[in-house]
């Protein structure tokens, strides 16, 4: 059976099956051993008890990056998202420059549909950046309060001395 045929009835996406072929985990056409292994993988696919230990091994930063980009389907979408997220404050990245970068790097011409996707990725990254800045500001305010002279616990400790 070929990978394309198997993907039609499988929980495992064709893209993942192709990736498995590229790293020599499976072959095309699929052998009997490949089918046995894929059937086992299908039983575990998407189960929380199977995913949780894998995700636990990742660091906090890696987990956040994974969750932020897990629903971006293509490499170029994830690339665009990371370009926007890694920009220094006050810097700008024009869509023209990014379009050119993507077309040169990934060697294909973006369609109108792809360009609309890219605008959505930009909007999403900007919203994420705004949330990140607000969170950092709140944490800074909490630290400021803890360090202020109005901290009751510190005052009580000073009085006890």
What can you tell me about this protein's structure?
- The protein has 161 residues and is mainly α.
- It has 2 domains: 3-54, no CATH class; 59-147.
- The chain is built from 9 helices and no strands.
- It has helices at 3-9, 14-22, 32-44, 48-56, 60-69, 75-85, 95-106, 112-147, 152-160.
- Helix 6 runs parallel beside helix 8.
- The longest helix is centred in the last third of the chain and has 36 residues, at 112-147.
- It is flat.
Please give the share of residues in helix: over 70%
Query: Could you tell me the number of beta strands?
Result: 0
Q: Would you tell me the structural class of the helices and strands?
A: mainly alpha
Which consecutive residue ranges, at least 5 long each, have pLDDT under 50? none
Compute the number of structural domains. 2
Outline type: flat
The end-to-end distance, rounded to whole angstroms, is 80 Å
Supply Rg: 24 Å
Compressed to H and E, one letter per element, the order equals: HHHHHHHHH
Count up the helices. Answer: 9
């Amino acid at each position: 059976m070929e990978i394309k045929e198997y993907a039609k009835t499988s929980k495992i996406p064709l893209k993942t099956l192709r990736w498995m072929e590229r790293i020599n985990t499976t072959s095309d056409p699929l052998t009997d051993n490949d089918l046995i292994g894929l059937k086992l993988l299908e039983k575990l696919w998407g189960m929380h008890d199977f995913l949780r230990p894998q995700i636990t091994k990742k660091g906090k930063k890696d987990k956040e990056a994974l969750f932020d980009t897990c629903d971006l389907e293509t490499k170029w979408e994830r690339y665009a998202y990371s370009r926007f997220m890694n920009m220094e404050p006050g810097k700008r990245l024009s869509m023209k420059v990014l379009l050119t970068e993507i077309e040169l790097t990934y060697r294909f011409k973006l369609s109108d549909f792809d360009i609309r996707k890219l605008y959505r990725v930009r909007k999403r990254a900007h919203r994420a950046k705004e949330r990140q800045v607000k969170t950092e500001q709140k944490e800074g305010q909490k630290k400021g309060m803890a360090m202020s002279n109005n901290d009751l616990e510190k005052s009580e400790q000073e009085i006890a001395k």
